[in-house]
Structure formats: structure tokens, C-alpha cells
Design brief:
Elements (H helix, E strand, L loop, with lengths): L3 E18 L2 E15 L2 E7 L9 H16 L4 H7 L4 H18 L3 H5 L6 E2 L2 E3 L5 H10 L5 E5 L5 H11 L4 E5 L6 H13 L5 E2 L19 E3 L9 H7 L2 E5 H4 L2 H13 L3 E5 L5 H11 L4 E2 L16 E3 L2 E3 L11
Parallel strand pairs: 5-6, 6-7, 7-8, 8-9, 9-10, 10-11, 11-12
Antiparallel strand pairs: 1-2, 2-3, 4-14, 13-14
Length: about 325
């Protein structure tokens, strides 16, 4: 095998507008980029990390530098699982290895994963705004889209959804609480959200404070996000939720993400593939996992001022691969 060269850099991609959720505001989307070059072929991976686990591009870069000699010596995706814990650094390296492998073997990541490569419909995320009217206006403005993920907290959640439904009765909605409610609020709001047509409630309670969900029969399916970071969380999450949101920054990349998805399906759990934001370089590996998912949230490029050149194609909510090779595509 030819010696590999490893490059690790950090970048930041400005958001279109401040992006607000229940416990966080983003003005840009900083990330780490891992490149693994073997001869003239370069595999690339991007990760934003998990902000609520205190990951930053700088901390992920340090982790990648610490194992760069192993990557240079030829470590593969399976060996990487033992080199780094689940998280953003492993995600960036894993994605780069998938991309490198696709080019070296002339076999796309989708083929290697054993999944189709068809366009998928992504949700479009509506961040928190001060008033229900402002959030409804954002949904109305996205007239070419029909599937939305609406961020909520404990402030007027029903009023926000009712305003959106009134403005866009054709819209399909899921909501994301980002750990912002307690169990009493969930019990209060879930029946009304069901009546408003909401299809799923994501992470209503904080991680570690959701034991009360065991035995609770929610009128709207509940999806674990922060409560299911990787395979080690699945058994407990399966007792409390009907779906899990798989984000590759959480799992440490597509390799473990696929294992988690198959294990979730064995437990009859629904799957959502999500993201921490970012460019098409972050979304492309998730597009592989999207082929196995019930809901898809890979709208990161729609939330930033500009995407990487030659990235995924977004058209009326559908996400497809570009004509020219990008990530994970054979030449």
C-alpha cells in the first residue's frame, strides 16, 4: 500500500440567519475536515461534532492528530472503531475512509453499504422565533417544501404549531423539543399535537431524565436524539421511544451508524437520520443511511449562506447526488 498523507483543518460556514433551538443558538457552523490521501486519490470527511458534549473543531482536530500516524500507516474503518470513541473526530476520519475506499475500489459508498442510491426527501428545519406568526411566516415562505421539522420549547408550543397549520394546512410536521420539556408538559401537549397532525415528537425530555417514558403511551411517536448517541444507548432507548435519530457525529461515522440502524430495525424502531448542520460533505454519508430511514433531516446546506462546490442537489425538498463525483462516489 502506498503511504498515506493526512490533512486536518478547521473551517466555519456562516448560517443564513441565527439558528435557534430550545437551548442553543448558532450563527455559524464550525467543522473539522479530515483528508486522507493515497497517491493521487484523496478521501474527505467533515464533522461538526456534538456541541452538548463540548466537542469543538479544535478538540476534534487534536483527537485526529493523535491517531494520524495510525491513519497514515493504513488503519481501516474497522480499526478506527478501536482508535477513537464515538463522536465528531471519528466521524470525520470514518467519512474520509469511506470516500477513499470508494475511489480506490471503484465502488460507491452506497454499493458498499448494500443500499439503493435514490433521492430522499429531507425535512426543512424551522428554528425558534419570538412569535408564532414569525414561525408560520417562515413555513409559508418555503412554499416549494412540504415536510418541516419545527423547533419548540416550553413557550407557546401549541400556538406555534397551530399558526403553522393555519398558514400551511398542506404541510407535514414533526417537532423537535431538544430536551426542553418535562414529563408533565409532554403529557399536556402531546394529545393536542396529535390533533394538529404532528407526526413525531423528537427528544421531549432531557437525556438521563426520561425514565418516566417507560410505559407511557404517547399519542404521537417519540424519537430519541440526545438519548441515543450510539449502540450502547439503544437498549434503554428502545424501552422509552418508538424511533431513534441517528446522527453520524454522534455515532462516530457511517460505519457505526449502519450497525445502529440495523440493530434498531431488529427492535422494530423507526429511524430518522439527522445532522448537526454543515455542508454537503457532512450530508453525503448521511444520504447513505437515509436509504434505511423513515424520516430524513439532512438540510444542513439549506441553513448556510453557501455550500461546497459540486455538492448534493436540493430541489423542492428532494436530495440527490450531483452528476459529477463528490463524496463516496466512484469515478
Amino acid at each position: 500500500m502506498m503511504p498515506r498523507k493526512i490533512s486536518i483543518v478547521t473551517e466555519s460556514w456562516p448560517s443564513l440567519i441565527p439558528f435557534r433551538i430550545a437551548n442553543h443558538v448558532s450563527y455559524d457552523f464550525p467543522c473539522v475536515i479530515c483528508e486522507i490521501a493515497q497517491g493521487d486519490i484523496v478521501g474527505r470527511g467533515e464533522a461538526l461534532g456534538v456541541y452538548y458534549r463540548d466537542e469543538t473543531p479544535e478538540s476534534m482536530a487534536v483527537q485526529l492528530e493523535e491517531i494520524s500516524h495510525r491513519l497514515s500507516a493504513g488503519a481501516d474503518r474497522q480499526q478506527l472503531l478501536a482508535l477513537l470513541a464515538p463522536g465528531g473526530a471519528r466521524c470525520a476520519a470514518d467519512s474520509a475512509l469511506w470516500d477513499l475506499e470508494a475511489q480506490l475500489n471503484d465502488r460507491s459508498a452506497w454499493e458498499t453499504a448494500g443500499v439503493d442510491c435514490t433521492p430522499v426527501e429531507t425535512v426543512f428545519t424551522i428554528g425558534l422565533e419570538p412569535t408564532a406568526r414569525e414561525m408560520a411566516a417562515k413555513v409559508s415562505a418555503a412554499s416549494d417544501l412540504s415536510l418541516f421539522k419545527v423547533k419548540l420549547d416550553h413557550e407557546i408550543p401549541l400556538e406555534r404549531i397551530a399558526a403553522i397549520v393555519e398558514a400551511r394546512p398542506d404541510a407535514r410536521l414533526v417537532v423537535d423539543i431538544n430536551q426542553g420539556w418535562n414529563f408533565e408538559e409532554l403529557q399536556l401537549y402531546a394529545p393536542a399535537l396529535h390533533d394538529l397532525g404532528v407526526k413525531m415528537i423528537e427528544q421531549p425530555l432531557p437525556r438521563g431524565e426520561d425514565a418516566e417514558l417507560e410505559g407511557y403511551e404517547s399519542p404521537v411517536p417519540l424519537c430519541a436524539d440526545e438519548s441515543c448517541l450510539h449502540l450502547g444507548d439503544l437498549d434503554v432507548a428502545a424501552k422509552r421511544y418508538q424511533m431513534i435519530n441517528i446522527k453520524l457525529d454522534k455515532t462516530g461515522g457511517l460505519t457505526h451508524g449502519l450497525v445502529l440502524a440495523l440493530a434498531a430495525k431488529e427492535k422494530n424502531l423507526g429511524i430518522m437520520v439527522g445532522c448537526m448542520g454543515g455542508t454537503s460533505l457532512s450530508m453525503a454519508p448521511s444520504h447513505v443511511l437515509a436509504q434505511l430511514s423513515d424520516f430524513v433531516d439532512i438540510d444542513g446546506p439549506l441553513l448556510i449562506k453557501e455550500d461546497r462546490p459540486g455538492g448534493l442537489v436540493y430541489d423542492q425538498g428532494m436530495v440527490s447526488l450531483p452528476a459529477a463525483p463528490f463524496w463516496g462516489m466512484n469515478s
